[in-house]
Amino acid sequence: MTAWIVLPVSLSAFSITGIWIVYAMAVMNHHVCPVENWSYNVTCIEELPRPGFPKTCCTIQDIPLISKCGSFPPESCLFSLIGNVGAFMVVMVCLLRYAQVIEHSHQCWINTSGLVSGCTNALGLVMVGNFQVDHAKSLHYVGAGLAFPAGLLFVCLQCVLTYRVAVTALDYWMAHFRVALALGAMVSLVLSGIFFIHESFVLQHAAAICEWVFTVDILVFYGTFTYEFGTVTNETMMAGLQQTLHLASGVMMGPGARAAGLGGATKGLKSPGGSSTSTHLNCTPESIAML
After folding, report:
1. CB under 8 Å to 54, separation ≥6 — which residues?
2. What is the mean pLDDT of the chain?
3. pTM summary value
4. What pLDDT shows up at residue 261?
5. Residue 27 belongs to what H/E stretch?
6. Is residue 285 very low, low, confident or very high in pLDDT (cuts 50, 70, 90)?
7. Which residue has the higher pLDDT, 59 or 53?
8. In Å, how far from its chain's centre is CA 69?
9. Per-residue DSSP letter, 59
10. Of 168, 163, 161, nearest to 280 (Cα)?
11. What DSSP string runs through 230-243?
């Protein structure tokens, strides 16, 4: 058990709690309408604000999209903070997961793609959090175009990696659970995009709900890495760095040296979610000779 187990849970708890606080602030400040409101008007007469009560007359500009909730101060300040801190924590989770997969098995293009997509997701979060949709719409939409597809790609690749490194029955159950989360994220993102392009108030509101479902789903997925991070040690990141050095030296010295380096770098597998030592040996000639 290591302190890194706190990182994924902190990412999920901090981000989910934070965006709902932003939503509550936006509703109380009359910047958006409540998510349970499905009645919208083309125009509204200016109404006197009632502290502590949501708006009673809503237009399409008041639909509670996540970005819309963080468009105006004071909630925009908290929204930017959540985007920046959350992006940093996402990068940390992605780097640790990348190194952990290398430590438990071997380097592969799926693992590298997962790292790239996760960091792209973090970059999109920074842009979304710091460029509000009502003040820098183009940059905000570029950030959303990076964050949402990259986040979906990341969870899909991690589902594949979870199956590839699974050893125990509990590992496979975690893989099944992540597949369910990934499917939910995919359906909600597709529906959100379909509903968002329509001008109907009802469909626009449905798009906002799907966006909230997608975001919470992805954050819960990040939280599931607590299961594996219980086995992370100080040597985990070193394993990732050593593997990268092996690959780099193999490229410079030729295919033969690269194969030798990779062969020497392989190690026994252990359950990603367990704390026990290696229980499965790689059946390489070197291992047989040592036995």
Report:
1. 27, 28, 30, 33, 34, 37
2. 83
3. 0.83
4. 41
5. helix 6-28
6. very low
7. 59
8. 20
9. -
10. 168
11. TT--HHHHHHHHHH
